[in-house]
Amino acid sequence: MRSRLVALLVVASAVVAACGSGGGKKASTGTTRGSGSGGEIAAETASFDLAAGPPARYLVGVLTQDQRGVSFGTIQVRFCFLGAQQASGPCQYGAPRQASFVAVPGSPPSPANATPRVISSTESKGVYATQAAFDKAGFWRTEVSVNLDGKQRQATTDFKVLEHHAIPFVGDAALPTDNLTASTPNTPPAAVDSRASAGGLIPDPELHQTTIAAALAAHRPVLAVFATPVYCISRFCGPTTDFVQQLAKTYGDRATFVHVEIWHDYQKQQINKAAADWLYRNNDLNEPWVFFIGADGKIAARWDNVADQAEIESMLKALPVIGKA
């Protein structure tokens, strides 16, 4: 089945949408009128897998009504519960909290001390992230408040929260997956990495040398990226995979780095088993995902949609040097 991830880039801006099981259902977007260079704004939940329980990463994208992205700085978000079975009636918002801008890997560096603004096509695209805890499953609403050019603008986005996470969550045991590698016999190169050339050259060799299962058996930390660089609708898979490859070159003596390609055969719509085992739920699959697995075999962190470069690198720097795998 083809991923139903809605494009996160509309025109040249960072328009963010999320589709998928549970918290990934496409959010309905509401707007509040404003004036000035930003005009009206819209917001859309960008998280793939939201569930009731402990605090977890929540992503929201902000854009103008004329499809220009809003980036940089921080914004304020508030959450309210709409109903268990459907979004209905008014709701009581909780206390406001701050959400910080997270750029898509590979984006130009964010200006120092930048505040939210409507960006050009050459500037950093991304989303805003915060930690949020939802105390019940059902339908929720986010109110986004953004200060643009000294004027406060607001928008809302509705989304669904599951009873339990559909995708492996922090604290879960990692699946001992025998993902395809460059040495897997009788395997088309494009099934290992969709960017493989017609001649069979598989890019990013550091990411295609071993399996998650082998790394777990060796009690090595793992940074695994699940992405299809060629067929990713969001266009974030390629930059995310490239970012993980750069990390592998720097921190390959501290962890094992793995890329799991989504498609075994895109034309036949055949998903690789490793990708399906981790991500395919309720006839749907979203990417990109990045998972950090500890030496104990448990998931220590995960990043959906837009990976947090600074957070990932900080976790890798904290690992002891153990030598190349």
Distance between the termini: 34 Å
* Sheet with the most strands: spatial strand order: 3-4-5-10-8-7-11-12
CATH architecture of the largest domain: Sandwich
Main sheet summary: 8 strands, antiparallel, barrel
- Strand residues, percent: 25-35%
From the helix content, strand content and strand pairing, which structural class follows?
A: alpha+beta
Q: What ranges have pLDDT less than 50 throughout 5 or more consecutive residues?
A: 1-38
> Over all CA atoms, what is the radius of gyration?
20 Å
- The number of distinct β-strands equals 18
Number of domains: 2
User: Which outline best applies?
Assistant: globular
Classify the helix fraction into a percent range. Answer: 10-25%
Which CATH first-tier class of the largest domain would you pick?
A: Mainly Beta
Mean pLDDT across residues? 87
Order of helices and strands: EEEEEEEEEEEEHHEHEEEHEEH
Which fold name corresponds to the CATH topology of the largest domain?
Immunoglobulin-like
Structure annotation, total helices: 5
